[in-house]
Write the structure tokens for this entry.
Amino acid sequence: MPLPNSPETSWTGWLVDGLGGKEASVCESLLQALQAREIPKSKVRAGTVNMWWRRDSRCIDVTSNMDGDITATVHIQEYGTSLFVGRAVAAFKQRNYYKRMASAAFLWTVDMCVEEALTVIAGKEAMHLLKDASE
């Protein structure tokens, strides 16, 4: 189940030129990359969510409970002729620094898997990193 919509949820995104219509390929590549990383004490689940103007947009939830629970949802959606991939994360701002270290390793791994999947599918297409404007 994708993370609930909340103003406190942090996100990062990628907009890749020329990948509109490649959602299925990127989703499959991302699932393979996440599973190959063997993220400790994690679960990976693909699904859909109603996003923006489009119903049933692809998403992948990744949850780790290695040192506290942390969940990231990766949204994959066509954006005109480009492809938008957004990663939202909950429970990242934890008080205990051990839990924050585990969360940072988890989040870095998820982001690297996104970039790996996009590179596999996109090749040399322009990839633009997007950050949450509310931060």
Q: What stands out?
A: Helices lie at 23-37, 97-122.
